[in-house]
Each structure stands twice: as C-alpha cells, then as structure tokens.
Amino acid sequence: MGAAKRPDEPAATEWPARLHVVTGKGGTGKTSVAAALALALATGGRRTLLVEVEGRQGIAQLFDTEPFPYAERHLTDAPGGGEVRALAVDAEEALLEYLDMFYKLGGAGRALRKLGAIDFATTIAPGLRDVLLTGKVKEATTRTAGQRRVYDAVVLDAPPTGRIGRFLNVTAETARLARVGPIKTQSEGVAALLRSPMTAVHVVTLLEEMPVQETVDAIDELTSLGFPVGRVIVNGTRPPLPVGRPVTPDELAGGLHAAGLPADERTVSGLAAEARDQVIRRELEDSLRTDLVELGLPMVELPLLPDGVDRAGLDRLAEALVRAD
C-alpha cells in the first residue's frame, strides 16, 4: 500500500474503495482474508470496521474473543496507530433500529419482537433480511462525524460466492418492488453505493479446481449485475519448488545419506512417489493460476500459514496485502 497515510487522507490508491466486500467459496479462508484486509487498511493510523452478516460470529472466533453484540466494538490495534473495530450485524436488531429511525416506534418496536412479528416479517420476506443487513453496512460506510468519515474503510465478510450475487442484488429488487416510502429510498441508496466506485467486491480462492471455477462463475455474475469487482485474492499459496522436476531416487538417496538418515529402498521409493505427486500438483496449480490471470483482474497471492490462522498469521497476511501493488 505504500507509505503510511494520515487518518484524514484517502485510502491508498492500491485499495481505493471505501467499502470492501470479501466473498469466496466456503473453505477458502474468506473470513481470515477479510480480517487481514481490515488490518492492512488500518495500517498507518486509519480506522476500519470489520463487519459480518451471517450470524456465525466468525470474527470473534478468529480473534478468540467473546461473541459480539449488535454494536461496534474495538477489535484490535493495527501498526502505526490504526484501529480495527468489529460489528456482527443482526437482522432483527437492524429492523428494530430501522423502525425506530424511520417510524419512531421505539418501545413499540421492542414489543413487536416479543410478539414474534419481526421474525415473522423477515421469514415471509427473506429479501428484507438482506436489505437490513446491507443497509446497516451502507450506513457505517457513509457515516460522518464533524464532517469527516467515521471509518476510512469498511470490510464486509460477505456470504460465499454461491450466494453473493443474490445477497448484493436484493436491494435493487426491493427498490423495484417497493414503489414509495423509506424502504424504497433506503434500498435505492444501498443499491447505488454497491454499484459505485466506493465499493469493490474481492473474491478469495485457492489454487484448487472447485474454488477457481466458483471464482470465475462469481465474477461473471457480479459483472453482469453491475457490481465493481476488485481483486482476486489467492489464499494459501506455497513457494515454488526448488527443482521444477521430480527428484530422482539417486538424488534422494544421496541427500538422505548426507543427512545421516536411512536410505533403504522403501524409504527412497516412497519419497520419490511423493516428489512426483508434488510436481504434478504444482503443475495443476500453475494451470489454475493462469486461468485466474486470464480474468484480467488484479491478483494478490497470500502465503500458506503452516501454523494456522492465529494473530501472527493474520499480521503476516495483512503485511502481504499492504505490499500488494
């Protein structure tokens, strides 16, 4: 991301959007990448908000904290004096907030929850749930205090690629169906933000066939719906092999002897088979990488974390994102 910016400066040009939507096939590590991106964007004294909308409390689990209430809370500090805050958006609480904001229901809205009316409303109109979720994200992204943005960037840990198009497009559908009133106004505002240069949808993948295919399909869908696609983020990549061919049994035996390890035939043949598998696997990864490059989008590769995704691992991912150009 270049040199550190002051908090009042715009986000670095390498990540120019204000709202970063992070999606990806399940199992690709999109929550970890979203958290690392929030850390990266907060580097240098900025404040970012990391939001989740699926009710999994994945952020709390990732940072080993208590589940988050429906409130923006300090999550962690970032290098250079930055701060990452977190919010787990709850559709029911968002609806209560919405009713109070636009209809001044206050305590009456709380009474509706006791009667089960809110759960009923979001069940019979499932699109309303996504409108409320994205509406809260939009409010946080555009919120100001003293004529300044409260957050320099908002990172949304969004639903997976199989549902991302429907999730983001539901506001446009609601705006089309609701002819008047605050629901239409809010839906139109959210739809406009999600299709504006303020937003970028990043797709996380692995160098595996199914995630790469879902990435290609998701980008096609997002593009057809008019959403601005940002970067393809390839997670869990490994360094190149020191030798771009299978190691011969003689080479393996020589290496084992040099290390003072057993070099019997069974050991050598087993290692030789493993070496061949590794070369074949890397050739497949190179082919999949080429498929992603051909999408014509900026691409970032993040390293595999052998020890798992702990705070040190998140910092390592964030550093790689900071260095992305």
Task: Describe the model.
It is elongated, with a radius of gyration of 23 Å. The chain is an alpha/beta fold and 325 residues long. The protein has one domain: P-loop containing nucleotide triphosphate hydrolases (Rossmann fold, 3-Layer(aba) Sandwich). The strands form two sheets. Strands 3-4-2-7-1-8-9-10 form an eight-stranded mixed β-sheet, with helices on both faces. The chain starts with 18 loop residues before the first strand and ends with a helix.
Keywords:
single chain, about 325 residues, alpha/beta, Rossmann fold, eight-stranded mixed sheet, two-stranded antiparallel sheet, 12 helices, 10 strands, elongated, disordered N terminus, ArsA/GET3_ATPase-like, P-loop_NTPase, ArsA family ATPase, ATPase_ArsA/GET3
CATH architecture group name: 3-Layer(aba) Sandwich
Rg computed from alpha carbons, rounded to a whole number of angstroms: 23 Å
N-to-C series of helices and strands? EHEHEEHHHHEEEHHEHEHHEH
CATH superfamily: P-loop containing nucleotide triphosphate hydrolases
Q: First CA to last CA: what distance?
A: 7 Å
Uncertain segments? 1-12
| CATH structural fold name | Rossmann fold
**Which CATH first-tier class would you pick?**
Alpha Beta
Helical amount: 40-55%
Strand residue content: 15-25%
Which structural class matches the secondary elements?
A: alpha/beta
- Number of helix segments? 12
The shape is elongated
How many domains? 1
Beta-strand segment tally: 10
The overall pLDDT, averaged over residues, is 84
In this structure, how is the largest beta sheet organized? Answer: 8 strands, mixed
Describe the strand arrangement of the main beta sheet, using strand numbers: 3-4-2-7-1-8-9-10
